[in-house]
Design brief:
The complex is a heterodimer of chains A (about 575) and B (about 190). The model of chain A has no long low-confidence stretch (mean pLDDT about 95). Chain A is globular and about 70 Å long. In chain A, helix 6 packs parallel to helix 7, helix 14 packs parallel to helix 15 and helix 17 runs parallel beside helix 18. Chain A is about 30% helix and about 20% strand. With about 575 residues, chain A is of the alpha/beta class. In chain A, the strands form three sheets. Chain A has a 21-stranded mixed beta sheet, covered by helices on one side. A two-stranded parallel sheet of chain A has the order 5-7. In chain A, strand 14, helix 12 and strand 15 form a beta-alpha-beta unit. In chain B, strands 2-1-7-5-6 form a five-stranded mixed beta sheet, covered by helices on one side. A two-stranded antiparallel sheet of chain B has the order 3-4. Chain B has a domain of about 90 residues: Roll (Ubiquitin-like (UB roll)). In chain B, about 20% of the residues are buried. In chain B, strand 5 and strand 6 form a beta hairpin. Chain B is globular, with a radius of gyration of 24 Å. The N terminus of chain B is likely disordered. Classes of the chains: A alpha/beta (about 575), B alpha+beta (about 190). The interface between A and B is large, with 74 and 55 residues. Chain A: One of its GO terms (cellular component) is SCF ubiquitin ligase complex. Chain A: Keywords: Auxin signaling pathway, Developmental protein, Nucleus, Ubl conjugation pathway. Chain A: This is Protein AUXIN SIGNALING F-BOX 2-like.
Chain lengths: ~575, ~190
């Protein structure tokens, strides 16, 4: 292949789109590395501290789309202090100074300031798409800058961000000349919206395919928007509290009939449950239904709605659906691939919550199921074994028993055998989250069977270092390991230090690793950054045998980061 | 605090034994179950009951009101967690506390109506509080399918079925709640 000129190889490489494949291609030889880097347009950086903007810009001059992830996953659950890091600004600053024509930016768990949004909006003429997931640090002023300055903006997608809402008129900042919007999602904003500006914006966006509104958008506006945009594929309602006797409600019913393309539905942040029947006409074609932010429905109304959704592939709901409701899902949604059941009341136990029964029903009725997130009151080994038999295709299996060390209530045993059955049966399993009472045995099974596992989340599990060692030794493809409140210590941490170079990151909090152990690891592996997050200020640097509160380590090409706050020690 | 916690370091040879059998074919000894209990680190909880206590499941014995709050658990994005408490934090002024009685119950309870966004949430909360189930609501027949009916006393002193009027009207006119049981409840919904 070395005898082919670059012009022949370039179009061939154009067909290679996945990041993994591109990375492999670049390792073959110097000439392939060169061709690949010049032709690469999309780059994914799973840990923003593993490299730096300068290296990115130097290697990929043709960069158009950048995905960046910042804080470790457990930051989503308040385990990482706010100012830990993950700042966007340095990236935008460096990219702005370069000749990179950035068009798309996708961020997860990053700290995004208004300044960075403003700089972004002014620096890249062809900027088209901004997707922010679980980010923080910005206000609606930053959004106003994006709206005002990105003349060819196609996508503004805000998912579950903490945004300081200045109740401004950011929506009005889209100029009259902006007609290019394809996707607009502001469901996570808490404040008021200029409704007139929204209506006008939708009216002049003929390519708009995805629209997700926030709670402040009332029913009357929804009805008007639907009249303007019958071409929508994806709709997220804001408030859905119609007066059933009103003209607006009648108009909505006919507007819905015209929206024949809607395949994805979400929202109902506030809802009049008696008016859900207006939605039934679009249910037949839905492939994604997200009612996980709609606590205002009853289990009955929810199941009645789902009975109309025979083509559903992805379903996100709250646990008030109950086991019986899941039975209805199982008998209706034969195409179901992904199910997420969130707790209605995260802190308490409710009658309406789900148990192992619901999951078994789903597994029996939905053989295509490959992705699960399930918050439940209890789980049994028998149920998990049945689920494993019924659904061998799981790629992602996340089970969260609300009581974190609850055993199998029938046998009073740990859930080792149940999870063992899952990993043994599901050969393609890439992501696993454990909960319930678990001993080292479950890790033995994971190390033995979970050969494709890339991400593992452990909480309150295991008996000894053996548990962690089974995983580190057995899971060859492991990339991310996050552990909390489990009795794993230095012996496990230090047994195979080279392993961490093959992984993106390791998180351990409230475990048994000591400061001395972490120091040893940092010494042996200069290619890793070993961070100790120490909020309590009790720790003195010299006391090596004290256990560490939170440790986060990751491989990096660029050494220790310079932006760490005071409470983060990089060893 | 957690640095000084000791736990037993058992050899636990069985756990390291490699087996080729399917999981679940070889029953584990009772002994290893108790090893598990003793090795478990106590949770970082305020609840003192959760110490190692032999084989019995202490979690079952914990009273509902002593449910401990563990940092970062359950693992739900903070955005989602915060989203479900907005009524409580955005509440301006005092709550609307009403007494709730249940036929046959020894004592009454009190709830704050402002905390709920609508009937389904309120009814779920009542079901949880008194451990019962309501039937399905319909305009014509009230709550069909159970022995219970939720009623309230309005400003005129009349006993009304919960669910007929818009929510906002309900919370401003509700003086107290009563969950009726038995034949009295069944008679309420019928159009006889």
């Amino acid at each position: 292949m070395n005898y082919f000129p670059d012009e022949v190889l370039e179009p061939v490489f154009d067909f290679i789109t996945s990041h993994k494949d591109r990375n492999s291609v670049s390792l073959v030889c110097k000439s392939w590395f060169k061709i690949e880097r010049y032709s690469r347009q999309r780059v994914f950086i799973g840990n923003c501290y593993s490299t730096c903007p300068e290296r990115l810009i130097a290697r990929f001059p043709g960069l158009k789309s950048l995905t960046l992830k910042g804080k470790p996953h457990f930051a989503d659950f308040n385990l990482v202090p706010h100012d830990w890091g993950g700042f966007l600004y340095p990236w935008i600053e460096a990219l702005a100074k370069s000749r990179i024509g950035l068009e798309e930016l996708r961020l997860k768990r990053m700290v995004v300031s208004d300044e960075s949004l403003e700089l972004l909006s002014k620096s890249f003429v062809n900027f088209k798409s901004l997707v922010l997931v679980s980010c923080e640090g910005f206000t609606t002023d930053g959004l106003a800058a994006i709206a005002a300055n990105c003349r060819f903006l196609r996508e503004l997608d805000l998912q579950e961000n903490e945004v300081d809402d200045h109740r401004g008129h950011w929506l009005s900042c889209f100029p009259e000349s902006c007609t290019s919007l394809v996707s607009l999602n502001f469901a996570c904003l808490k404040g008021e919206i200029n409704l007139g500006a929204l209506e006008r914006l939708v009216a002049r966006s003929p390519n708009l395919k995805s629209l997700r509104l926030n709670r402040a958008v009332p029913f009357d506006t929804l009805e008007k928007l639907l009249m303007q945009a019958p071409q929508l594929l994806d709709l997220g309602t804001g408030s859905y509290v119609p007066d059933p006797s009103s003209e607006a409600y009648n108009r909505l019913k006919s507007a819905i009939q015209r929206c024949k393309s809607i395949r994805s539905l979400s929202g109902f942040l506030e809802v009049n449950p008696r008016c859900m029947s207006a939605i039934y006409p679009i249910c037949a074609n839905l492939t994604f239904l997200n009612l996980s932010y709609a606590p205002g429905l009853s289990g009955n109304e929810l199941t009645k709605l789902i009975q109309h959704c025979r083509k559903l592939q992805r379903l996100w709901i709250l646990d008030y659906i109950g086991d019986k409701g899941l039975g209805v899902v199982a008998s209706t949604c034969k195409e179901l691939q992904e199910l997420r059941v969130f707790p209605t009341d995260p802190l308490g136990a409710g009658n309406a919550a789900v148990t192992e029964e619901g999951l078994v029903l789903i597994s029996a009725g939905c053989p295509k199921l490959n992705s699960l997130l399930y918050f439940c009151q209890q789980m049994t080994n028998a149920a998990l074994i049945t689920v494993a038999k019924n659904c061998p295709n799981f790629i992602c299996f996340r089970l969260c028993i609300l009581d974190p060390i609850k055993p199998d209530p029938v046998t009073n045993r740990p859930l080792d055998e149940g999870f063992g059955a899952i990993v043994e049966s599901c050969e393609g399993l890439k992501r696993l989250s454990l909960s319930g009472l678990l001993s080292d045995q479950v890790f033995l099974y994971i190390g033995m069977y979970a050969k494709q596992l890339e991400m593992l989340s452990i909480a309150f599990a295991g008996d000894s270092d053996e548990g962690m060692l089974y995983v580190l030794n057995g899971c060859k493809k492991l990339r991310k390991l996050e552990i909390r409140d489990s009795p794993f210590g230095n012996a496990a941490l230090l047994e195979d230090v080279g392993k961490y170079e093959t992984m993106r990151s390791l998180w351990m909090s409230s475990c048994e690793v000591t400061l001395g152990g972490c120091k040893t690891l940092a010494e042996k592996m200069p290619s890793l950054s070993v961070e100790i997050i120490n909020e309590s200020q009790q720790m003195e640097f010299s006391l090596d045998d004290r256990t560490v509160d939170k440790m986060y380590l990751y491989r990096t090409l660029v050494g220790h980061r310079k932006d760490a706050p005071e409470f983060v020690w990089i060893l | 605090m957690e640095g000084s916690v000791a736990y037993e370091n058992d050899l636990n040879l069985e756990a390291t034994e490699l087996r080729l059998g399917l999981p679940g074919t070889d029953e584990r000894e009772e002994q290893t179950v108790s090893n598990v209990r003793n090795n478990k680190r106590p949770l970082q909880v305020a609840d003192e009951e959760c110490g190692a206590n032999g084989k019995s499941n202490t979690q079952n014995e914990t009273a509902p009101h002593a449910k401990a709050q563990i940092v970062g658990w359950p693992p739900i994005r903070s955005y989602r967690k915060n989203n479900f408490q907005p009524k409580k934090s955005e509440c301006e002024g005092p709550g609307i506390y009403v007494k709730v009685s249940m036929d046959g119950a020894a004592y009454l309870r009190k709830i704050d109506l402002k905390v709920y966004t609508g009937y389904p949430e309120l009814l779920r909360a009542l079901e949880n509080m008194f451990k019962f189930t309501l039937g399905e609501y319909s305009d014509r027949e009230g709550y069909k399918g159970s022995d219970y009916a939720p009623t309230y006393e309005d400003k005129d002193g009349d006993w009304m079925l919960v669910g007929d009027v818009p929510w906002e009207m309900f919370i401003t006119s509700c003086n107290r709640l009563r969950i009726m049981k038995g034949s009295e409840a069944r008679g309420l919904g019928c159009g006889v």
